[in-house]
Amino acid sequence: MIEWRSLDEVMTGKGLRMVLVQGIASPWGVAAKALFDIKGVPWIAAPWLPGEANEAIVRWSGADSGPVVVWNDERPVNRWLDILYLAERIAPAPSLVPEDPTERALMIGLSFEICGERGIGWNRRLQLFEPMIESGSAPEGVLRMGAKYGYSKDAARAAKSRVIAQLGALATQLERQYAAGRHYFVGDALSALDIYFVAFMNLVALQSVEDCPMAESWRAAYRTGMDDPAMAAAVKPILVEHRDRIFRAHFRHPLEF
């Protein structure tokens, strides 16, 4: 398990420090940890408390969610692409960004469909918020996050078709790669896209308790909407197989949060 440090240690320390959402397999944080672990960069972390305002972290970092990543005396960053390029700069090998510009553009574009605004993470968050917000008794933390993601009933309903289309695009890319004898999303080597995909797949195909030991209340929330036949059908076997293979080869398991 993560040995949590104080926020003061993270704010004033040296080397690589992070603020990570505590107790939940928050995909942006899972991905950030994996990027630095694969590159062999040691890190320490302080907790971001889910559902709380975390005002001290916001004042220090300017970020309103985790993960927050800081290197030595540089300014903290928390956007997924900024974290990736920080990882590439401080530990160039192994590179997780393709050298070929066309492959690099494809990797970043598909990564945006996972991590970015209106990506799989964004859309699944809207779907997860819907039953709580529409019940009229959502906790303050959920309402705060709903506002951040632009929640409305219409936005939550539109999220379903977006997730289905995004999973379809990822499956198609993998099918092309596998048919060519390549077992990564782009080119013939592991890239950040493979890492993001594994981290975010828990939002549509939750790993076992042994691999992802979240509290059952959070596990139930992550499964919201996945009993819909169209959503379930979008999680093609090739997606699950790829997730499991990359997870076993490149991630700490079980996941730690």
Compact summary:
The protein is mainly alpha-helical and 257 residues long.
Key words describing this protein structure:
257 residues, mainly alpha, Glutaredoxin, Glutathione S-transferase Yfyf (Class Pi), Chain A, domain 2, 3-stranded mixed β-sheet, 12 helices, 3 strands, globular
Question: What can you see in these coordinates?
Answer:
This protein is mainly alpha-helical. The chain folds into 2 domains: 7-90, Glutaredoxin; 101-250, Up-down Bundle (Glutathione S-transferase Yfyf (Class Pi), Chain A, domain 2), CATH 1.20.1050. Helix content is 54%, strand content 6%. The chain is built from 12 helices and 3 strands, in the order αβαβαβααααααααα. It has helices at 7-12, 27-38, 55-61, 80-90, 101-115, 120-134, 140-148, 153-179, 192-201, 216-222, 229-234, 237-250, and strands spanning 16-21, 43-48, 68-71. Helix 2 links the parallel strand 1 and strand 2. Helix 6 (120-134) crosses helix 7, helix 6 runs antiparallel to helix 8 (153-179) and helix 9 packs across helix 12. It is globular and about 50 Å long.
How do the helices and strands line up, and which of them pair or pack?
Elements lengths: L6 H6 L3 E6 L5 H12 L4 E6 L6 H7 L6 E4 L8 H11 L10 H15 L4 H15 L5 H9 L4 H27 L12 H10 L14 H7 L6 H6 L2 H14 L7
Parallel strand pairs: 1-2
Antiparallel strand pairs: 1-3
Helix pairs in contact: 2-4, 2-9, 5-9, 6-7, 6-8, 9-12
